[in-house]
Amino acid sequence: MSIFEEDLPPGQEILQQSAPRRGSLIEELLAAIADELHQINQHIEDRNL
Fold first, then answer.
1. Environment class of residue 1 by beta-carbon count within 10 Å: exposed (0-12), middle (13-18) or buried (19+)?
2. Where are the domains of the chain?
3. Do 46 and 39 meet the contact criterion of CB atoms below 8 Å apart?
4. What is the pLDDT of residues 1-49, one digit of tens each?
5. Angle 30-25-5 from CA coordinates, rounded to 5°
6. Full-prediction pTM beyond 0.70?
7. Do residues 13 and 1 make contact, with C-beta atoms less than 8 angstroms apart?
8. SS3 string of 1-49?
9. Contacts with 15 (C-beta within 8 Å, 6 or more apart), sequence order
């Protein structure tokens, strides 16, 4: 642990260590949200027909 990490809020050093993995998790989350929104949009369009 470096001097700089001591100033970080609790858990922040863990987030920094897992940054590449966190990026892929964010991408997966955004893809899932986009898929859900697409399904909701399809449902709304189907009801409006």
1. exposed
2. 24-49
3. no
4. 455 556 666 666 655 665 566 678 888 899 999 999 999 999 999 998 8
5. 125
6. no
7. yes
8. CCCHHHHCCCCHHHHHHCHHHHHHHHHHHHHHHHHHHHHHHHHHHHHHC
9. 22
